[in-house]
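REQUEST FORM: STRUCTURE PREDICTION
Request ID: SP-0412
Submitted by: Lab K.M.
Chain count: 1
Length (residues): 448
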Amino acid sequence: MNTQCTGSQLTLQGLDKRQIVVRNDAKVNSSDGGLLLIGKLEKRFRIIRRLAKCFTDSRQQYRVKHSLRSLLTQRVFGLVQGYEDLNDHEQLRNDPLLQYACGSENQGAGKSTLNRMELGHEPDEILGDRYTKIQWDNQAIEDLFCQIFLESFQQQPERIILDFDATDIPLHGEQERRFFHGYYDHYCYLPLYVFSGDYLLSARLRPSDIDGCIGTEEILRRLTDKIRAVYPGVQIIFRGDSGFCREGIFSTCEQLKVDYIVGMARNRRLQELIASELAEAENQYHATEKAARIFTRFSYCTRSSWSTDRDVIAKAEHLSKGSNPRFVVTNLHGESQELYEDLYCARGDMENRIKEQKLDLFACRTSTGWMSSNQLRLWFSALAYTFFLLLKRFLPIGNPHRKHQPSTLRLKLLKVSATVRVSSRKVWVSLPESFPYWEIWRQAASAI
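STATUS: Completed
RESULT:
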C-alpha cells in the first residue's frame, strides 16, 4: 500500500488492520544522551583540559566566541558519539547536551571554525597567516597519552609490555607526502602505533615511502624515560613483528636495559639450523594427523647486519598444508614454548585495537591537504578511543560491556535519545522509560 504523508506526518500500513502514524513532534532534542557520561569522565580526568594546554591560541580573545577548550571538546566528543566528519557539526552544534558538555550556553562551533583549528600551519605566501592562529606542540600531545596510561595504575606494575606496529591509512586525494605503497596496493600514510594492553601510548603519522619501523628507537627512548621516571624498577618489554627485527632497535633495547621479543622472517640459514626439528615435527604429524610443534632455542647472528649473537626461539611446526617454521629474537629467559605462545603471540591483540581505531574512531579520516593537520586528526581519534577505555573502567565488574568494542558501547550506552530542559538553576535531562541499558548507564554514571 502506498504511504500517505504531509509535512509533519507519515502514514504507513501496519502488520494488522491498523495504520502506523509517524510524526516528528516528540519533545526530544538530543540523540546523544551519552554525552553526560563522557562529560563526567572529562570532569574527573581532565583529558581535554590537559590537551588544551598543548595548544597556543593567538586569536584576539575579545573577538572569540568559542574558546579553544570548547572547540577541542566538541571535536573529540563528536568522534566519541560517532560523528566522523566536520560537516556533521553543522547539525550537531545545536545539540543542547553538546553545548552543556562544552561548557557553553551558546550554539556550538560550525565546521569552518573547527576546520581552522585543525589546519594550524606555518604562514605561506598563498594562505598568509589565516591558519596560524592556533598551533600545537606535537611532543606535549604525545606525552599526554603516556601520562594517561601511567595514571591508570593503582600500584607499581611488575612489567609493562610495549607493542609496536605499523598500519596503513588509505588516501583518496592529493594529500601532502602521499605515496603509493606496493604491499597495501594504494596511496596511503603509514602511522606507527604503540599500545600497552588496551592503552594507546603513541600514534605517529608518517609517509609510506619509508621502512615501517622508522621512528621506533626515538619513541622507545621517550616512553622508557617517562615510564621509569614514575616506576623506576618496572620491567619493560618491547614486542613487535618481523618488521621491527632491526639492529638499531635491538641495540637501543640493550642500551636502555629493555627486554625484547621480536618476530624474525624465515630464511634458508635459519631453516637449516632446525632441519632435524622440522623432520621430527613432520613425523609426528603423519603419525597422529594432528598439528605437531617442536620448540628449540639457539644463538644466531646475521652475516653483516647484527653486531653480536642473539638468542632465537624457533617453532618447528608441521600442519596439513605442510611445514610452517616460525622464529622470534629475544633476550628474555624462560621456557621457549611459553615465551612464544603466551608472550609473543599475545601481540596479535594489538591489531584488534588498531582496527577499533580505524573502524570505530575514524582514524582514517586524514583528508586535509597538510600532513600536520592529518596528524592532529589522528590524535583526536586516539583521544576519543581513550574515553572509551576510561568508560569501561567504571562499568560493573563482570559485566560483558567491559569487553565490548567502542562501536558497541556507543550503540548501547551513548546513542540514547534525551529530552533536555534548561532552567536558571538546573538542567533537566529525561532519558526514555524504555531505555534497555538504564541500570548499567546509571551505575556507570554513579561510579564516575
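NOTES: The CA atoms of residues 161 and 237 lie 5 Å apart.
Reviewed by: T.R.
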